[in-house]
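ok, trying the design again with the full structure, not the truncated one.
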């Protein structure tokens, strides 16, 4: 009976979001309340679980996500992302332009959320395609692949950060393992796959969807641009390197522990970048803060959805559903990481949004983290890979690709959907391989 209630709750969530078009935040809260009642919890206990789940989940990830979106906004508005794209274009030349686009998406995708990165970089795709007289998808798909992989796999993006918090994974190890998996996934599903797309889509290079790019002389320097984008990664790596170099220095140890916290790394980065990409280049502090405020408004609903998914997870935990699921998972013959990937892929196909699929899976798959053979860092990546599988007509990113590149639905399925599925399958293969090696 317990499993039937779980299946009903998941189906109800899917129906509310996809068919009834209910806001995902409201859908999660409604299903969480109903689930608690169906499982026989006192209503006051259900409310307490919802409050605890929402508060605990947001309390652990909200600051990092907000700081991340602020950094992304500054990188976009300052022209740093544009500078990186131009530099990669000049560095690689026409022969390896698809790899240049992939590397640009990889670097810019660390601080930028997918939709922001897409809108920001798509004019550059059209510009490069026009300059070299190359098909749009051949030039653009590698960049979109990199943006998607970074969004689905790696912190500080919302879904990976939520999964890291829920499963108590190590953010540094998850990021490191994620990079190992992300690089081959981007290369295979990006430049290599895009070579098969040269005959798909229009060859016309008109582009009217985006605002004009900044003049080249107004762009920040390439060192400033790349360092500002990658500074969180640099700081966290430095925090783990310092104790090795200065083993017996208590001050260095304290400093490294301080810098190793993702919140501190992001806060330091935003502070430094506010100066290097903003104040030093003549922008007023008030204007920069207005940009930050707008960025937080854009991410507000994502934060609420993440919090409400945490509420549903907490209800599942407090109702002792997790114990029932844990018993089933321990006795299951399917590899736990494969099971996590499959479950998340199904949610992605049903729900559309990679972020919603990932945070939903966090609640349903929470017992897997207690499986004796599961590496929680790889569990985060397995769910992240599954959340990218099979993007189709219920995903906003599908329509962004279709409309901006002037594709038919069939062509978008042949290009975008296949690319996303490739990334997901390659990600799963990487996770399972690492699980064998570690």
């Amino acid at each position: 009976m317990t499993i039937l209630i779980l299946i009903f709750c998941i189906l109800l969530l899917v129906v509310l979001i996809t068919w009834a078009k209910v806001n995902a935040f409201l859908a999660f809260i409604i299903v969480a309340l109903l689930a608690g009642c169906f499982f026989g919890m006192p209503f006051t206990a259900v409310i307490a679980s919802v409050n605890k789940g929402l508060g605990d989940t947001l309390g652990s990830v909200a600051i990092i996500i907000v700081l991340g979106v602020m950094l992304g906004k500054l990188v976009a508005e300052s022209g740093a992302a544009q500078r990186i794209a131009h530099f990669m274009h000049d560095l690689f030349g026409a022969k390896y332009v698809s790899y240049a686009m992939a590397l640009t998406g990889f670097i810019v995708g660390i601080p930028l959320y997918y939709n922001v990165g897409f809108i920001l970089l798509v004019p550059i795709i059209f510009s490069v395609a026009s300059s070299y007289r190359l098909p749009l998808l051949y030039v653009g798909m590698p960049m979109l692949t990199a943006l998607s992989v970074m969004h689905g796999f790696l912190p500080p993006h919302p879904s990976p950060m939520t999964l890291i918090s829920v499963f108590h994974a190590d953010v540094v190890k998850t990021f490191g393992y994620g990079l190992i998996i992300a690089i081959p996934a981007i290369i295979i599903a990006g430049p290599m796959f895009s070579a098969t797309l040269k005959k798909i889509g229009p060859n016309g290079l008109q582009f009217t969807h985006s605002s004009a790019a900044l003049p080249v002389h107004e762009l920040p320097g390439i060192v400033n641009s790349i360092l500002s984008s990658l500074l969180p990664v640099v700081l966290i790596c430095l925090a783990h390197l310092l104790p090795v170099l200065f083993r017996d220095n208590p001050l260095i140890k304290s400093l490294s522990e301080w810098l190793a916290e993702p919140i501190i790394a992001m806060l330091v980065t935003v502070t430094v970048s506010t100066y290097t990409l903003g104040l030093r280049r003549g922008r007023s502090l008030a204007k920069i803060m207005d940009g930050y405020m707008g960025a937080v408004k854009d991410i507000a609903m994502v934060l609420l959805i993440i919090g409400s998914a945490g509420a549903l997870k907490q209800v599942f935990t407090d109702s002792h559903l997790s114990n029932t699921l844990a018993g089933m998972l321990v006795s299951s013959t399917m590899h736990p990481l494969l099971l996590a990937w499959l479950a998340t892929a199904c949610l992605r196909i049903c729900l559309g949004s990679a972020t919603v699929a990932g945070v939903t899976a966090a609640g349903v798959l929470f017992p897997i983290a207690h499986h004796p053979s599961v590496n929680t860092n790889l569990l985060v990546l397995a769910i992240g890979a599954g959340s990218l599988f099979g993007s189709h007509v219920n995903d906003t990113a599908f329509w962004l690709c279709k409309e901006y590149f002037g594709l038919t639905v069939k062509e978008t399925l042949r290009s975008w959907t296949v690319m996303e599925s490739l990334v997901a399958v390659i990600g799963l293969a990487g996770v399972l391989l690492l699980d064998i090696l570690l």
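Keeping the full-length input from now on. Confidence is low (pLDDT under 50) at residues 203-211.
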